[in-house]
Amino acid sequence: MLPRAIYLHIPFCTNICHYCDFNTYVVRGQPVDDYLLALEREMANTVERYPPDRIDSIFIGGGTPTVLEPDQLERLLEAIQRYFPVWSEQIEFTVEANPGTTQLEKLKVMKAGGVNRLSFGAQTFRPDLLRRIGRIHNAEDIVRSVEDARAVGFDNLSLDLMFGLPDQRIADLEQTLLRTVSLSPSHISLYSLQIEEGTPFHTLHHQGKLPLPSEDEELAMYKLAQEFLSKAGYKQYEVSNFAQPGRESRHNLTYWHNGAYYGFGAGAHGYIHGIRYANVKGIKEYIKCSNRGMRPVGEERAVTDEESMEDFLILGLRLLEGVSKERFFHRYRRSLDEVFGHVIKSLESRGLLLADEARIKLTSQGLLFGNEVFAAFIGEAGKA
Amino acid sequence: MDKRQKKIRNFSIIAHIDHGKSTLADRILEATGALTEREKTDQFLDQMDLERERGITIKLNSVRLTYKAKDGEEYILNLIDTPGHVDFTYEVSRSLEACEGALLVVDAAQGVEAQTLANVYLALEGDLEIIPVINKIDLPSADPDRVRQEIEDVIGLDASEAVLASAKENIGIEEILEQVVEKVPPPAGDPEAPLKALIFDSVYDPYRGVITYIRIVDGVLKKGMRIKMMATGKTFEVTEVGTFTPRPVEVDELVAGEVGFVVAGIKNVRDTHVGDTITDEERPAETPLPGYRRINPMVYCGIYPIDSSDYDDLREALEKLELNDASLSYEPETSGALGFGFRCGFLGLLHMEIIQERIEREFDIPIITTAPSVVYRVHKTDGTMVEIENPTHMPPQQEIDFVEEPMVRASIMTPQEYVGSVMELSQNKRGTFIDMQYLDENRVNIIYELPLAEIVYDFFDQLKSGTRGYASFDYELIGYKTSKLVKMDILLNGEPVDALSFIVHKDHAYHRGRQLVEKLRELIPRQMFEIPIQAAIGNRVIARETIRAMRKNVLAKCYGGDVSRKRKLLEKQKEGKKRMKHVGSVEVPQEAFMAVLKIDESK
User: Fold this and answer.
1) Residues ≥6 apart with Cβ < 8 Å to B209
2) What is the pLDDT of residue B307?
3) Looking at residue B372, what DSSP letter applies?
4) pLDDT at B49 > cutoff 70
5) Each residue's pLDDT tens digit, A89-138
6) Averaged over B153-173, what is the pLDDT?
7) Rounded to two decimals, what is the model's pTM?
8) Where are the alpha helices (DSSP H) in B42-172?
9) Is B90 helix (H, G, I), strand (E, B) or coil?
10) Burial code of B224-246, b = ≥16 C-beta within 10 A, e = fewer?
11) What is the mean pLDDT of chain A?
12) Per the CB < 8 Å rule, is A369 touching B557?
């Protein structure tokens, strides 16, 4: 199965947020042009080995891809077209953008380069909470960025929001949801704050200096968002994703359907021909590898059939539509019930999973305890 | 006695833990050329990982050494190692019976300890020649003169010729060997008489079957002979006889006085009893050797597989461990909460921990161990008496007339400044003060009568922490005593969990129950529903805690294409669950079943 999805990583930001553990570096003083050249080389080397099929989705993420200057963006987009010339008509081409970094000129370059979807890291509309988590934009920047994008002709916009932030109240989230919905983006992602090792928040948390909402409050926030967004016409289609009809993210669906994708850039992950790989994380190391004509892969691993079947469920059950038995059979030539019947039965009896002839999916309770469900499938494919 | 027999010396080393026995054994092996440079991994005789890690000897080991003495003659020295922990007194008595002499190793700084004393008495009972060795004389705090005096005063041995040694610095090793040759008598026994060989240990080898460790008392044992086990009547053909040098080496024959091993195609673990006598089938001895007294386990606990499909593997593991360890006993039992498992008897708490660890490490079976219990004597109103080793089997309160519990006489040696904390601890553990003796101006031996059940809990740990590790401790069972005991039940989610029941003194019941439910609340992870934990005596609930329900558990984070990371998190979660047992609808971690031992009394 050849990948029809591409992920490109731009590991630069103007500053690093207090909660962030993604592979990203402060852009000042970084060899950005060399990095972009290395990215081109990586694409060249990869397509030589794995020639591309028709491309259905491209996602440029980060970091903050929009920290690139207009000419840098232009070169990158040109390179993508050069190495991946055949696109499907409904291609979804997303660039992640931070409010306040999307000057009109950049927007125009992106539009011209084939980008048709922008995903803004809005996080919250409360200025004090934005500062608290280390973001440098304010609520007005979000509104202006959305307006500018529309002016340039982008009609498919997504906003990322966060909940469970220190000192965040349920009312704060409600206000943020209200302002988000009033901008009527076609897609909304709602992530909960995770305290990750190696971040300033992790240190503060261990010192007891991070007043996080209680689990009950966090749950109330999640439920509030589900209800609020549903009323506003957004359908929840994944644990943390909501969309207007037909505007579900095609790129992310590739991940959840356990599909193949190219991954380019420092620290990027890819899944090609049954091999999952992760590129080296450091900028210099990445550039060095690419310059030597090597693929900058740091780790790679062939996924066994059993593991792949488990991934199919772990990822697929994140979608509210659940996992199709037919699709499972089509891919693995074994029936879902034959491989996982024992797990499914026990999860059903605990009220976490619903099964019918065609599919299995999470119950509303199962959605809140997704990890219990997903973990139950780990290591089980080999037992049947 | 033939010439060869006159050149044999069988001896063991007795010492308190930490007094340097294993290092000394290694030096002796080196000095006699038994270890090559390459083999000098530290502490050769402690072969199990567990023994090395904990710095203790659990199993008996024997080694045959060749030593050329100053008199120009070559001697065969059989060194039989002994365990040094209070739980293993029985094993010590076994190894001592295969010897004519013993080195008594005493730390030059710490002096005589409780355990040393106990083992010396065993050796004296067995009429062994005892050679005192004052070890670690290189330490700055060493005071050999004081220790020499102590050996004379406390033990009553002549220590004027005690060897001053440092195993670490290789001082005094030759003198020790010379004294062994000179003072330890050669083994008595008649090589011409019908064969009598004492089985003092055995190990199971998957290729050769049971390897039996023996001391030949009379006669000769060779390959090809047909032998008979005098207790079981089973007969076998000898396929191999040998000695440990310390590697097993085949020899033509073993004669009276010698120590070695015999392989005879013995498949069944139960055909070789430690303490049994091996004789010649064609020319059998008339009477067997006295053998060993069968020791009764002091402590019992339930051992259950976490995954019930491991039951058969667990039984096999216990069978194999029993072969190496006659003091382990087990019987199948069933628990409502834990399913099918075994009730196992042990010499003490350390012994229990070691068996538990060996099952998990050597046999790779995840298990749950219930809190240990002693054997109670329950006298019922109908005049009958039952012995209860599992709290679950305690009859209902109204059928009980009175209950007796086993008592021990404990002797605790401690530096004088800790007398107060030792007495406070013993008092808290329902102890009765018996006596106190000053060994010298600084060290005191305190005698207490204590319920065994209290020692089984965390007495040893608390003693060590209360005396900064300076106190040493030994005990002997002295009989039963009536006590006000009640059974405490623990209910999870409203259901009594039999595996968590325990027996407690009435006056401590409220306090223990309270602490236990608090501890369980910490140990049992939150689940998707609220779980009440209650402690009850009969129908009366005396303590209650609640584990709040987990409200959600899902990662609403954007990991993009990093599927491996997501998977790793889930694998970790799943791994954690494997170590939990489903009790009704509640997932209970292994540690929870031992929680009663982990209560901090000081709270």
Assistant:
1) B263, B264, B265, B266, B267
2) 87
3) P
4) no
5) 999 999 999 998 899 999 999 999 999 999 999 999 999 999 999 998 99
6) 88
7) 0.70
8) 49-54, 89-97, 114-125, 144-150
9) helix
10) ebebbbbeeebebebeebbbbbb
11) 95
12) no
Provide the 8-state DSSP code for B166: B
Label residue B564 by pLDDT band (50, 70, 90). Answer: confident
Cβ distance A192 to B574 less than 8 Å, yes or no, reads no
Do A219 and B552 make contact, defined as CB atoms within 8 angstroms?
yes
Contacts of B564 in chain A (CB under 8 A): 269, 276, 278, 301
Rounded Cα–Cα distance for residues B481 and B494 (Å) = 35
Q: Do B553 and A369 touch (CB under 8 A)?
A: yes
Using DSSP's 3-state secondary structure scheme, residue B97 falls into helix
Peptide linkage before B246 cis (omega within 30 of 0): yes
Six token digits for residue B499: 């595996």
Q: What is the ipTM of this complex?
A: 0.90
| Cβ-Cβ contacts under 8 Å, A189 against chain B | 558
Closest chain B CA to residue A317: B554
B224 Cα to chain A: minimum distance (Å): 49
A277 and B CB contact within 8 Å: no
Mutate to test the interface with A, among B527, B559, B562 (most CBs of A within 10 A): B562
B367-404 pLDDT, tens digit per residue, is: 999 988 999 999 999 999 999 989 999 998 889 999 99
> How many Å apart are CA B543 and CA B431, to the nearest integer?
26
Find chain B residues with C-beta within 8 A of A263's C-beta: 561
The answer to whether the Cβ–Cβ distance between A314 and B567 falls below 8 Å is: yes
Which residues does A84 contact at the CB level (< 8 Å), separation at least 6? A6, A43, A47, A52, A55, A58
Q: Which of B551, B554, B560 sits opposite A239 (nearest CB)?
A: B554
Task: Tell me which chain A residues have a C-beta less than 8 angstroms from the C-beta of B567.
Answer: 311, 314, 378
Q: What is the pLDDT of residues A322-353, one digit of tens each?
A: 999 999 999 999 999 999 999 999 999 999 99
Q: Enter the tokens of residue B409.
A: 């006489």
Structure tokens at A143: 């509104």
How far does B548 lie from chain A, in Å, by closest CA?
A: 11
CA distances from B568 to A314, A379, B564, B565 (A): 12, 12, 6, 5
Q: Which of A7, A370, A374 sits opposite B560 (nearest CB)?
A: A7
Residues of chain A neighbouring B569 (CB-CB closer than 8 A): 371
Asked whether B83 and B92 are in contact (CB, 8 A), the reply is yes
Q: Is the confidence at residue B602, as pLDDT, over 70?
A: no
Rounded to a whole number of angstroms, the distance from the CA of B591 to the nearest CA of chain A is: 22
Tens digit of pLDDT for each residue in B236-287?
999 999 988 877 889 999 999 888 999 998 887 677 777 789 999 999 998 8
8 Å CB contact of A370 and B564? no
What are the φ/ψ torsions at residue A103 (nearest 5 degrees)?
-60, 155
pLDDT in tens, A137-173: 999 999 999 999 999 999 999 999 999 999 999 999 9
Q: Whose CA is closest to B272, among B223, B319, B331, B314? A: B319
d(CA B432, CA B454): 12
Which token pair is A117? 């979807």
- Which one of A241, A369, A373 makes the best mutation probe of the B interface by having the most chain B beta carbons within 10 Å? A369
Helix (H) or strand (E) holding A201: helix A200-206
The answer to whether the Cβ–Cβ distance between B562 and A278 falls below 8 Å is yes
pLDDT, tens digit, for every residue of B213-242? 888 999 999 999 999 999 888 999 999 999
Residue B542 region, left (φ>0) first, then alpha (ψ -120 to 50), else beta?
alpha
Task: Reply yes or no on whether the pLDDT at B603 is more than 70.
Answer: no
Whole-number pLDDT of residue A318: 95
- Give the separation between CA A341 and CA A357, rounded to whole angstroms: 13
